[in-house]
Write the structure tokens for this entry.
Amino acid sequence: MKYEDIPQVAQIDREAFPGEWVFRSESAYKQDLDNPYVRYIVACNKRDVSESEGQAVQKLPWFKRLFSYERHLNVSENIAGFSGFWMMMKEAHIIAIGVRDGYRRLGIGEGLFIATIELAQILNANVVTLEVRASNEIAQELYKKYGFRVAGRRLRYYSSDGEDAIIMSTDNIASMPFQASLQHLKKAYAQRHREIFAQVR
Ligand SMILES: CC(C)(COP(=O)(O)OP(=O)(O)OC[C@H]1O[C@@H](n2cnc3c(N)ncnc32)[C@H](O)[C@@H]1OP(=O)(O)O)[C@@H](O)C(=O)NCCC(=O)NCCS
């Protein structure tokens, strides 16, 4: 994610998290991008990169080169989704993951989620954690698919309406069983969503 992506990401945030967006204003995103403990990833049409930037891009993991997506967004709306997390010691805590309305159920959220876990691993996280609304079964399905388990509950966590948050967490993401499962899921994802995975080398 770059500074110029902030307006679109904030817009997707407002759509995806109605009532909560005031806590992640554009200035909050800017602060996050300046924070070395915070990472954001965007799912976007393939970017034009300069030659020097292009060389750097080649060295990045596949998710940094996402997405050459068939259903092109227009120039002013070239971002389909985002995810963000902060690192504290060996824990990566997901701040949010959101996909633009009209682009859901296409594999974009899952691609972002895989990318988030892999980036957390590169940054030496042992576990990935998150909070999710108790009623948000769609997101919980995605997290369960990737081995997240319920680790607790925060009562009346969401100030907008007093809903509880479910805390979910992985086992050690560097462990053999987690890695085997992740690689298996990633392979299945690559086969199912070739158009998104097209940039992977
Ligand atoms: C959660 C969210 C990011 C998923 O993104 P998406 O691009 O639509 O998801 P994908 O198409 O990649 O689906 C991946 C998995 O998510 C789950 N999922 C997604 N949509 C679902 C639905 N309508 N019903 C049940 N499960 C669903 C499934 O496990 C799915 O895997 P499957 O296709 O093998 O069943 C998206 O729905 C969203 O932005 N929601 C609003 C914001 C939000 O709730 N964010 C999470 C809280 S931080």
Residues 49-62, 67-72 have pLDDT under 50 and may be disordered.
